[in-house]
Design a protein that fits this description.
Low-confidence stretches: none
Strand order of the largest sheet: 2-1-3
Number of helices: 5
Largest sheet: 3 strands, parallel
Oligomer: single chain
Distance between the termini: 22 Å
Shape: globular
Strand content: 5-15%
Length: 131
Amino acid sequence: MVFDVRQLPLSRKKGFSKAAFKAALGSAGIDYVHLPVFGCPRPIRDRYKIDGDWKRYEKAFDHYLEGQSESVSELARIARRTSGCLVCFEADYTLCHRSLVARAVALAGGPRVIHLSPKAERADLASPIAA
């Protein structure tokens, strides 16, 4: 299952907007779920565009996620029952809010986080180890 955590699943990149992406995944037998609650709120995104301060961004987004505890817990429950992948547009997971969502889900009882890249898989050292 692919969990799209973009607030607005639009893209100029062909095939990456919500409808086209969902159709392509569906044709491969992969379920698609858009979870806009996990998108980064515009004020946080806009401030990061101006100051480029990732630590400040992380703190603000983590604070936002604290207010979404019910949604985080629900995603943790779903993630324990199925193989899942969080998707956003940012290629570098170290500078993407999906890493923060994944970590919050893991801390809420979801599975251990593994980051995928074209070159390797990397365990998220800050996420809890699955039992």
